[in-house]
Amino acid sequence: MMRQACAACKYQRRECTADCRLAPYFPHDQPQHFKNVHRLFGVMNILKILAQLHPSQKRKAIRSIKYEAKIRNRYPIHGCLGIIRTLQAHIHQSQQQLDEVNAQLSIYREQHHQISPLPSSQCSMTYGGKPQKMTVKGGSSQACAACKYQRRKCNTDCPLAPYFPADQRKQFENAHRLFGVSNIIKILKQLDTSQKMDAMQSIVCQANIREKYPVHGCLGIICGLQVVIHRTQQELDAVNAQLAICREQHHQISLSSSSSPFLPIAACARIGEQFSYSLPKPLSKSTIQCRRCHRSFYRDTPSFLE
């Protein structure tokens, strides 16, 4: 039986041999996946990434690469960075709501001399809270980082000089290693002048993340943020439920006080007993440990944009 060529070999119109390194990751029925990956990163860069990884990590890396290529094809300007910032905004909004509900809950607890309110979530992560400021080259004959790396003369019409000044060599190395110069220039040519700076910021950010996390890349950051959103929402729902119970009990106490200025001791005990049972349970050790893991994994993410 004749071997069916993989999507990579089909696209490049070459024979797919038994030792094809891309066949396990790009089956013949996934031509669009390979097309997106090849257009954004190039075959040689993908093979270099795979060569640096353990065999058990390669499939996960290709999965994240496919995802990034799909997102860049859909959002050519911001790419995965746009999704990361959207998730951060969601986390920030949920954290604000949680703080407001905890503040309201503390009022009822102080009135009944109960314990301090449930601490607000510490899971909110910041990733590049401020957009990266890329210095625009001008008024100097010094070669840009791209031309320095490629050891060529930097002309006044160099397409990469505005985005990679001489002091940003590391950023260019990461972008060149992941995308390649020709692919970066192709992306810029498809955009308006007003969009190019934002696109380059997202490209540099994506390349820096891939250099830091070669297996999961941006997909790892996005999945981590989604976990934080889920856990923050769970905590918000729990605190909202406790606040509803406290409001109802406070209402019952107000009605009882208005009907009789002196409550029987047994009634006071029953109300106090119900109120104490409605207090939120302290966070479990597993939840606290999970939060610590997420904070330790992402605590240095702002350095990617420096």
From TrEMBL:
Domain of life from the UniProt record: Eukaryota
Pfam families the record matches: LOB
PROSITE patterns named among the record's database cross-references: LOB
Matches recorded under InterPro entries: LOB
Keyword list, A-Z: Coiled coil
Stretches assigned to coiled coil: 84-111
Residue ranges constituting the LOB domain according to the UniProt record: 4-105, 142-243
Family: Belongs to the LOB domain-containing protein family.
Name the UniProt record assigns to this protein: LOB domain-containing protein 27-like protein
Phylogenetic placement of the source organism: Eukaryota, Viridiplantae, Streptophyta, Embryophyta, Tracheophyta
